[in-house]
Amino acid sequence: MSPTTFESGPAAAGAPAGTARSGDSLSTGPGPSFLRVLNSEAIKFSTLLSTLILLASTAVVLVGFGALSAWGTGQFARAAETDQGAAAAFAAQGSELALGAPTSGIPFAQLILGSLGVLLMSSEFTTGMARSTFAAVPKRTPAFLAKLLVVVVTAFALTAVSAYLAGLVSLPILDHYGLPLDLGSAQSVKLLLVNSAYVAAVAAIGLALGALLRNSAGGIMSLVGLFFVLPIVFQLIPGDFFEEARKYLPGNTVQAMTATEHFPDTLEAWQAALVLGAWVVVPVVLAGILLKKRDV
Which residues contact 1 (CB under 8 A, 6 or more apart)? Predict the structure, then answer.
């Protein structure tokens, strides 16, 4: 006997809870399928003016800082022609400065997209939209995972494209000062992909903070404290504990993952990747659990 298929519409109004409706093959319970939830979250994300402004700001910041960094590196190279001290410093790190020009705006991009992650979740509660969202998706977890997927993919793609555009803008500036930059080199590609993944991880942490705190200001301030304040505090406080702990802060992992060689007393690339992954997984899982347990 073939299984009964319930069609959408009035005829399906009396279908028992948990019965998969037509087109909801990925549904595991009451409510729409994950693909429909994902499509809904993508539409909400792409139609908010504030979201588009933040995304455009991220692209402008990355391209602008790439050009500014290329110009600054060129000025440094020109100063090295007449200053012995500058010449020694440039000889030690000149090539790295040129190579890092396209991704020089990453610290600011992570703040913008991390804040976007916070707002994407916290605004659901501050505006009351969470009631409608979770009424349509009673299990809650699919809605949270859909938001997470949208913000992570967007952050990665936007950072990668913007950093590459920053590299294209930097090329003629660096060439004017006689400095080489190969965007197709293995190290350039590594910098592009790792920094893009890092910003996507920051956006995921921001989304988790927004779900945990349910407050935009609190979430953004927590994000700023974690990525900007704590590294400075740990650097200022003397002691072996703080010096060792500073290596495990999420904002300090990207340098270890993109380093051309491993230095003593620093994390290796795979260790830094695991640390960053833990900083993402723990708050995301905790946010998902509390989202199901708390009232809206």
Answer: none
pTM metric for this prediction: 0.85
Cβ–Cβ < 8 Å for 61, 112: yes
Query: Would you list the domain boundaries of the chain?
Result: 40-293
Sequence-separated (6 or more) residues with CB below 8 Å from residue 77? 90, 94, 177, 178, 179
pLDDT digits (tens, 9 = 90+) for 97-106: 788 889 999 9
How far is Cα 211 from Cα 125, in angstroms, rounded to an integer?
Answer: 9
Q: Using alpha carbons, select from 50, 20, 16 the residue that is nearest to residue 35.
A: 20
Q: 3-state DSSP call for residue 237?
A: coil
**Contact by Cβ (8 Å): 124, 133:** yes
CA dihedral (281, 284, 286, 288) positive or negative: negative
Per-residue pLDDT reduced to its tens digit, 46-84 = 998 989 999 999 999 999 999 999 998 888 777 776 766
DSSP string, 43-112: HHHHH-HHHHHHHHHHHHHHHHHHHHHHHHHHHHHHHHTT-HHHHHHHHHHHHHHHHTGGGTTHHHHHHH
